[in-house]
Automatic annotation (TrEMBL):
It comes from the Bacteria. This is ArsR/SmtB family transcription factor. The keyword DNA-binding applies. It comes from Nocardioides aestuarii. InterPro entries: ArsR-like_HTH, HTH_ArsR_DNA-bd_dom, Metal_resp_trans_reg, WH-like_DNA-bd_sf, WH_DNA-bd_sf. Keywords: DNA-binding, Transcription, Transcription regulation. Transmembrane segments: none annotated. Residues 7-100 form the HTH arsR-type domain.
Amino acid sequence: MTDDATQALRATAHPVRLQILSLLTGTEMSAAEVARELDLTHANASYHLRQLLEAGQLVVASEEVIRGGVAKRYRHPWDQEHRTARNPEERQAWVRAMAAELVRRTSAAAGTPGNFTDAELWVSPEVFEEVKALLKQCSNRLHGAARPPRSEGTVKVAMTSAIFEMDPS
């Protein structure tokens, strides 16, 4: 039996599920809406939504009656604390999923200038903590401003960040 953190990691360490989490940050959606937006079958979208829900990465925001059935609408509670990888194997799985998503996203880039940084540096602990806090602030700002897909007056953007202290050896 896996623990909750491992289940959450396995649920999110999948490119389609990362797309779903991003999609459900700005709005609540049903499986049918997710399927249309991501060009998936309804069954495939439902499967991925169930995996994310069971792992505690989504919540059922509402339910509505449609043609005699009940459709759940899901959302990603991005502002709640989520467990992170606790060991090297979990961390590597998460990084592989992030890397695959970054490749997909950059291939879909609109060609406008962005900001890319790759660094392995020695800095003071104070600078490290300051930059870590700034990245969290940027992430929270984008997540908090997220809107439903294709909303008037919006642009589709991507943000991938990782900052961590390394072993000095």
